[in-house]
Each structure stands twice: as structure tokens, then as C-alpha cells.
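note to self: dont lose this again. the chain is below, predicted strucutre after it. 223 aa total, dont forget to put it in the shared folder this time
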Amino acid sequence: MATFNENNYRKITTYYKTLGEKKLFKSSLSSLNLNKRVFLFYFKYKNIPICALPRLRSILASRHSFLSFCYNFFNFVNSNGVCVEISEDSISLIAKFVVSHEVGHIVDKNIYKSKEQYSAIIYSIIDKIIEYDIDVSNNNIHKENIPDDLEKNLIALKKNLINREVTAWNNAKSMVNIKNSHEEFIFNKVKEYALATYNFGNLKSVVREHNIDTILRYTKKVA
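---
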């Protein structure tokens, strides 16, 4: 695990504050080429993940989640031999592209069908965990071999999520004003980082990140 770089994090927070924090998100949203109104709900003190609520045409964002995204993004690109400077310009671009991506989910015409497929896959995973009596509380579960049909469900889940994200990023690119090759480069790197997070993971992380452990506990209580 990479060591936390306090100096880099301090730079990010300083530039973000200079850019106005919530004002940066509002200006990023207003800069998009949209024919519908999208609402922004920003939380300064709560740790709310950046996400879209398509039915409500809303975006949720928080100071903590954006700072974490920026910090992890810079770590990702700079550890792969690409130098992206931490600056007001780069942080402003990250905000613009992150917001455009969330709006990309809102305008996705197939978002509900994709979410229905997602739910079906999640419940298939749960059924297989119950069928094979897999102990999801086992800290070493990621080191063990899992049944082929469960493995196929995990692969299907990743495909579902990645396809949904790719669609959102394609929609984002059609809405956002990319002025030059530098902005194009940053857009592609933000997209690359965001998609890379869906390529990692195992049964243990899937159980945790998709609240499967909570569903399993409830299932056992009512059984």
C-alpha cells in the first residue's frame, strides 16, 4: 500500500479551497451542454460519495469524496509514469469531468435496464453464496477457489458496471467543452482511473462494496 503523501493532499485541499469548493462544482455543472435541468447537492462536512440519482436528475457530492478522488487520481497517474501536476488547473478540470460523468449517467437512456440487470446479478451472487455455504466473514475468502458459476456471476457484475460507466463517459464527452489537447489528455486519464477501479476486486471486496453481507445477515434472520 502506498504511503500517504501529506504534502500532496495539502496542495489539493489548498487549491480546491481557492477554487471555491462548492462553487467549482456549480460552475462545472453550468458549463455543460445540457437541455435539461440537473440539481446539485453538495455536502461540506459529510462523507457522501460522488454519485448520480437519475430519477431525481440530481448529483450528490461532498468535499471529502472529491478530495479523496483527486488524491487517488494523482497517485494513479503519477505511479504509472505519467506526470500530472497538482494545480488549480488540473483540479478544476477533474471537477468538470467528474461532474460531466455523473450527468452522463442521468442522461443514459438505458440506465434503468442496466440497474435491473445489476440487481439480478447481485441476487444470483447471493444465491450462490448461500448454495455453497460460503462464509463471507472469512478474511481469507479472497485466497480460496470459488465455484465456476459464482465466478461467472462476478465477471458479469464487473461487465455490467464497466459498460454502464463507459456509457456515462461517452455521454460526458458529448456534453463537456474540451478546449485543447491538454484537457483531452486529462479527460482520458480521469476516465482511465475511474474505469480501472472496476477492474479490481474479488469476492470479498464485492461482498463489502455492494452490501451483500448486510443482505445475507437479513436473509438469515428471516429464514
